[in-house]
């Protein structure tokens, strides 16, 4: 099993040797490798069971590094990076040849991100190369938000787990692409669209992503599957449909009392979307247990982070 620890030097040694290290970020834990070393990158795909057509995000410690890896950075991207980096946002930009094709799955663009976590920023500053890192979960499963989640599922294939505590945001980064100076959202995530729109002073477009959309290759509809069947709707109504089934419930604020509820997770009793986001993935994992046959969950208010939470719930329900 991989060692779990907080030693940046140990993490650095493994990464320099082309090995895999799980890294904490504010969104979810990443499964990181030397982004400019193809053998190291290949190990990521193998460890996750991830198809080679699904490109990886490249992590660096400062937006002034974008020019090293991106052939052109639109002014809009610079402006957004100034306001939101480090933070839960990824910029899709035309790639320079220094980024191996394996990282971008042959696409001529690269995803660049500066994660907002002190340990990982320290690690990235110490390394002479950027880190390619997808979320540190087996392909198709819920993203990990603690070191223990990583250890539970990938402990035997990762060489070291850098423990940075629980992820503060708990949802993956918002992914932005650029068409000239226009911004398009490829994945809803930890940075609210409203915050981006306020900064730009205009609305941003969204591309509906799916497995058949080559612009956002990894956004498979059923991407956040717990292994249990999950239904999304009004919980009270769903409970009446399944009075005898052993259910787990994920609700936003309310606690439900029914005899067939084996376990409940209330995301935020006080109705704070930020809190709900940070608890969502751990809740999905907790309910993925043998004595529960069905998970029932309800959408949260569809605003701010709520849009990204509902997006993940819909994908988890699409099995
Ligand atoms: O918050 C995050 O973004 C986390 C942490 C670890 O940084 N990473 C993450 O990576 O969520 P992953 O691999 O699980 O999801 C990355 C998504 C995939 O859907 C992938 O298809 C998309 O980003 N992506 C990466 N590079 C891309 C590119 N060049 N063009 C379009 N989509 C890209
Ligand atoms: Mg992922």
Whole-number radius of gyration?
Answer: 19 Å
Mean pLDDT across all residues, rounded? 94
**Hetero groups bound?**
threonylcarbamoyladenylate, magnesium ion
Described by the principal axes of the CA atoms, the overall outline is: globular
Q: Strands of the largest sheet, in order across it?
A: 1-8-2-3-7-4-6-5-9-10-11
Strand elements, count: 15
Strand-pairing-aware structural class: alpha/beta
- Give a quick account of the main beta sheet: strands, pairing sense, barrel closure: 11 strands, mixed
How helix-rich are the residues, as a percent range? 25-40%
List the helices and strands in order: EHEEHEHHEHEHEHEEEHEEHEEHEH
What layout of secondary structure does this protein have?
Blueprint: E1 3-5, H1 8-16, E2 21-23, E3 30-34, H2 38-48, E4 57-59, H3 66-69, H4 75-84, E5 89-94, H5 101-104, E6 109-113, H6 118-126, E7 131-132, H7 147-154, E8 160-162, E9 174-179, E10 182-187, H8 193-200, E11 205-206, E12 229-232, H9 235-241, E13 247-251, E14 261-266, H10 273-286, E15 294-297, H11 305-317
Parallel strand pairs: 1-8, 2-8, 4-6, 5-9, 10-11, 12-15, 13-14, 13-15
Antiparallel strand pairs: 2-3, 3-7, 4-7, 5-6, 9-10
Bound molecules: threonylcarbamoyladenylate and magnesium ion.
